[in-house]
Design goal:
The protein has 128 residues and is mostly helical. It contains 4 helices and no strands.
Amino acid sequence: MRYARRIRDLLVEILIAAVLVTSFLIYLFQHPKGVSLPWEWIKLVVNATIVFGFLIAWFREFWRNYVFWVTVALLLLCHVFLLSFFVRPNYVLPGGYYALLINPIELVVFAKILRRIPQTRATGGRVD
């Protein structure tokens, strides 16, 4: 069973990579010259995808717990609100800061918050 699940996960990851590469190639060949994309916002979205993708994968056993999803949604809103100040036109934060400084800090802080969520059984009873 674990083998089938790993193959499924690998196929999903390959599909995501294919979509990203295809999107980038379409951008390269179809994007009009002289027009720029909002790269600051794109960095913010990619950063949020990385951080919350890891968190959701790490806390797989919590997926059936609605408190987990509410907490993830609130953390995502806080994340986007706080980092949106860094994407203003006058303030450009290089992408390396996201990957090397901000992401690890956020992962540690958010993981500690998510670990405090009580696990519940499928019947709705609290596990002590």
